[in-house]
Amino acid sequence: MFGALILSSIFMVGLYTIYQYIEGKINVLNEPLKKVEGKHTFNGAKTKNNLDAVNVLLLGSDSRGEKQARTDTIMIAHYNPQNNAFKLISFMRDMRVNFPEHGQQKLNAAFSFGGPELLRQTIKENFNLDIHYYTIVDFEGFEKAVDLLVPNGIEVDVPYEMSYGIGMTINEGKQRLNGKELLGYVRFRHDRLSDFGRIQRQQEVISKLKEEALDTQSIIKLPELVGLLNKYLDTNIDSSTLMAIGKDLLTNNSSNVETLRIPKDSSFEIKRYKGLGEVLEVDFDQNKEALSTFLEGHGTVQREE
C-alpha cells in the first residue's frame, strides 16, 4: 500500500542517520550495518553503477497470516541520483493485463499468484518498465509508524463522510487523522471516483507525510522507528542504495514528489469480463509512452477531475 513509500523513505533516512551517528560519535560500537535481505525471490534489473536511476516496486499487504495475501496498492518509486529526483507511479489494480504463464488477469492478482517477482515480470511485459527492487509493508506497520512520527496526526480536508469498507467512520470536514484513520482515508473507494479518488488521496497523504515526517524532530525517534521497520517492512534494497537515498533525503530540500497514474486519462475503457468482473481495458502503447516521457523528466502531476 502507499505507506510503503513513506516507510521506505524514512527507513533510508534512518539508516543513513544512524550510520553517520555511529561512525562519528560512538566508534566503540563495531557492529556494522547489515545488508537488507528480502523475504521473496526477486530477479530485479541490475544497475551498472551508483549513478543509475532505480525503480522500486512498492506494495502494501493486508496479510492476516495467510500465505498469499493480496496487494491493496501497487506503486513504483523512481529515484535518479544524478538530479536527486523522486517520482511516484500509481498502477491501478483493476487493469486487465497479460501474466506470464497465467493469461489475462487483473494486475493485483499477480502478487497472489507469484509474489513480487511475478508482478515485476507482468509490469515489464505489459509496460516495458524495468524494476530493480521491491518493498512490502503491511497495514499495521503503516499505522504504527505514522503515530510514532506524527503523534498529532496529519491534517486533511475530508470531502464527505467515509465509512463503508474501512471499519470506521471518518466525518466530513477539515481535521487531523491518526495512523489508523489515515489508513481508512486512503483505502476508501466506495464513491463516484472509486480507485481514482483513492489514488488522489494516497498521493495527497504521501506529500503531507513527507513534509512532516522527515524533519529534525524525527531523528530522536529513529531507534524505535528502525525497530518498527525491521518488523513490518520487507525489502531487498541493498545497504549502499539505502544510504545514498537516505543521504539525499536528508541533505537536499527536494521539491514535491512528481506523480503519475497508470492508466493515464483517455487511455482506457471500463469493460466487464466473465470471471474477472469490471476491469480497465488499457491502451498499452499510450501508457508505455506516458511512462517513458514521465521518467525522462517531462512528466506532470496527473489528477482525475
The CATH class assignment is Alpha Beta
Q: Supply Rg.
A: 19 Å
User: Which stretches are low in confidence, meaning pLDDT under 50 for 5 or more residues running?
Assistant: 18-36, 298-305
* Gap between N and C termini: 23 Å
Strand content: 15-25%
Question: How many strands in all?
Answer: 12
Structurally, the number of domains stands at 1
Question: Largest sheet, described in full?
Answer: 6 strands, mixed
Q: In the CATH hierarchy, what is the superfamily? A: LCP protein
Kindly describe this structure.
The protein has 305 residues and is an alpha+beta fold. It has a single domain (3-155, 193-296), classed as Aminopeptidase. 39% of the residues lie in helices and 23% in strands. The chain contains eight helices and twelve strands. The chain has helices at 3-25, 110-127, 139-149, 179-187, 194-213, 222-232, 239-251, 284-298, and strands at residues 54-61, 71-80, 85-91, 96-99, 103-106, 133-138, 154-158, 173-177, 233-235, 258-262, 268-273, 277-282. Strands 9-6-1-2-3-10 form a six-stranded mixed β-sheet, with helices on both faces. Strands 4-5 form a two-stranded antiparallel ribbon. Strands 7-8 form a two-stranded antiparallel sheet. α1 runs parallel beside α5 (194-213), α1 crosses α7 and α3 packs across α4. The chain is globular and about 45 Å long.
Strand and helix map with partners:
Layout: H1 3-25, E1 54-61, E2 71-80, E3 85-91, E4 96-99, E5 103-106, H2 110-127, E6 133-138, H3 139-149, E7 154-158, E8 173-177, H4 179-187, H5 194-213, H6 222-232, E9 233-235, H7 239-251, E10 258-262, E11 268-273, E12 277-282, H8 284-298
Parallel strand pairs: 1-6, 3-10
Antiparallel strand pairs: 1-2, 2-3, 4-5, 6-9, 7-8, 11-12
Helix pairs in contact: 1-5, 1-6, 1-7, 3-4, 3-6, 4-5
